[in-house]
């Protein structure tokens, strides 16, 4: 067993006196970047409000445009929890640099668990479970439909034909997540509390997965810079609590395993690739859009000229979907039924060009200003291989109109990879800027949570 050569050593750090333009120019550039981020968000919101004035709310159904939700300012006792978590994150972030690698991975996982919970507690304890119980929309109210159909096999056999009978999220996805919730219910772990724990834990796993992949591809220096932004981001608003958070974590672990496989040979590489294929196959049964997850590791696989892990993972993933077919699911028929449902939904009335801008603005909010500025300033080719595949995936999804709105949660499996670009802001403006950039991140998250009641 051996290890394939990675992307080369990190470039030497320039002498302190040669690090970029002078301080005032650097500050001006940072302000300009944040201003551009804010301008995108405001333009999208103003455009949405203009459409609503002319055509009515039903034309967009984006009450917190460019996000799903509604205006509902709330500043109460529970706001202290979110504020305390934000202050702690900003205060403790610089200390991450001194942790050993395993300690850093654990710290990022803990942060990615605590921050979404604290942030959503701003609206009270019910905010962690209520999004999963909405009648007409969510999975949980439909869990009983599996037994009503006569069991999982009969449910799968009739799934495409009965799609109109289910709630919105069940109609919009393959049946994998509903069957997972049904299975948990069968072993005594049913209900909103356990479902919320599943979503939050799944979403939190994405952060250490991306951290490990960043170290593998771009080196430990970039990974350490990225760590605070992976642990604490505005995207946490949709980690607690949406099923897409679970999807994001599963896909991130799978993609990281495939990236690790590309850096190794022999049985270990094959085992990692097979594990990645198993998870990516499962992901295809959770969300049709997760097929785009295969684009995320492509820059690494192409650069390293490693076709074997991709082929092996693809074969295993196809096998998983094939087994679902043997169990009764006609995957293509289900997808076609979902495609018709989406075509008849609000997606039909949301203008295409507006959605391009609105989607970009929603993604910008989920990433936060530090990450957006980092993406614009990113020059390191190794870090580009970490985020480039995810950026290509969301660009493709936007251009083909796969998602017109609601991407703050739908694109979570790709947003988690873009968060690594926050490292560029720290590299570009120095370690002392970390608290400022992370402060901007948590401020955006708290502002959104306080001003709007988001839809998830």
Describe this structure in words.
The protein has 456 residues and is an all-alpha fold. The protein has one domain (22-454). Helix content is 64%, strand content 1%. The protein has helices at 23-55, 79-92, 101-120, 144-148, 152-158, 168-171, 176-186, 192-218, 220-231, 243-262, 266-284, 298-304, 308-326, 331-343, 352-367, 369-377, 381-399, 407-410, 412-418, 422-429, 434-451, and strands at 69-71, 452-454. Strands 1-2 form a two-stranded antiparallel ribbon. The chain is globular, with a radius of gyration of 22 Å.
List the helices and strands and how they pair.
Blueprint lengths: L22 H33 L13 E3 L7 H14 L8 H20 L23 H5 L3 H7 L9 H4 L4 H11 L5 H27 L1 H12 L11 H20 L3 H19 L13 H7 L3 H19 L4 H13 L8 H16 L1 H9 L3 H19 L7 H4 L1 H7 L3 H8 L4 H18 E3 L2
Antiparallel strand pairs: 1-2
Q: Strand order across the biggest sheet?
A: 1-2
Q: Which regions have little confidence, pLDDT < 50, spanning 5+ residues?
A: 8-20
Count the domains.
Answer: 1
Number of helices: 21
Please tell me how large the radius of gyration is: 22 Å
Share of helical residues: 55-70%
Structural class: mainly alpha
Main beta sheet: strand number and arrangement? 2 strands, antiparallel
The tally of beta strands, per DSSP, is 2
Shape: globular
Rounded mean pLDDT score: 94
């Amino acid at each position: 067993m051996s290890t394939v050569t990675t992307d080369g050593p990190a470039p030497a750090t320039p002498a302190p006196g040669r690090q970029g333009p002078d301080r005032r120019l650097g500050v001006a550039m940072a302000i300009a970047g944040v201003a551009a981020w804010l301008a995108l968000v405001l333009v999208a919101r103003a455009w949405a409000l203009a459409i609503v004035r002319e055509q009515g709310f039903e034309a967009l159904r984006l009450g917190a445009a460019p996000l799903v939700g509604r205006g509902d300012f709330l500043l109460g006792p529970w706001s202290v929890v979110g504020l305390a978590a934000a202050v702690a994150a900003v205060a403790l972030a610089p200390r991450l640099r001194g942790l050993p690698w395993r300690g850093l991975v654990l710290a990022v996982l803990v942060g990615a668990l605590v921050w979404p919970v604290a942030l959503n507690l701003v609206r009270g304890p019910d905010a962690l479970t209520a999004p999963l119980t909405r009648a007409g929309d969510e999975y949980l109210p439909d869990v009983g439909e599996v037994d009503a159909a006569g069991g999982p096999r009969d449910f799968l056999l009739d799934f495409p034909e009965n799609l109109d009978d289910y709630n919105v999220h069940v109609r919009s996805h393959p049946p994998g997540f509903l069957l997972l919730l049904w299975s948990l219910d069968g072993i005594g772990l049913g209900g909103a509390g356990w479902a919320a724990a599943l979503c939050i834990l799944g979403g939190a796993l994405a952060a250490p997965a991306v951290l490990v992949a960043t170290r593998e591809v771009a080196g430990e220096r970039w990974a350490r810079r990225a760590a605070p932004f992976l642990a604490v981001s505005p995207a946490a608003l949709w980690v607690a609590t949406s099923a897409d958070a679970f999807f994001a974590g599963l896909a991130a672990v799978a993609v990281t395993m495939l990236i690790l496989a590309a850096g190794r040979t022999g049985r270990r590489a094959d085992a990692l690739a097979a594990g990645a294929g198993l998870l990516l196959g499962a992901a295809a049964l959770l969300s049709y859009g997760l097929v785009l997850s295969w684009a995320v590791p492509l820059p690494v696989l192409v650069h390293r000229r490693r076709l074997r892990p991709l082929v092996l993972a693809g074969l295993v993933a196809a096998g998983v979907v094939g087994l679902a077919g043997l169990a009764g699911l006609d995957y293509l028929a289900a997808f076609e039924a979902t495609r018709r449902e989406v075509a008849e939904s609000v997606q039909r009335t949301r203008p295409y060009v507006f959605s391009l801008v609105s989607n970009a603005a929603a993604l910008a909010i989920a990433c936060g200003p530090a990450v957006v500025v980092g993406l614009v300033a990113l020059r390191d080719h190794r870090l580009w291989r970490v985020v480039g595949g995810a950026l290509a995936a969301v660009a493709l999804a936007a251009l083909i109109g796969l998602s017109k709105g609601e991407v703050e949660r739908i694109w979570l499996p790709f947003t988690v990879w873009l968060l690594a670009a926050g490292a560029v802001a720290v590299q570009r403006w120095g370690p002392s800027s970390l608290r400022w950039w992370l402060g901007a991140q948590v401020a955006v998250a708290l502002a959104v949570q306080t001003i709007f009641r988001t839809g998830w």
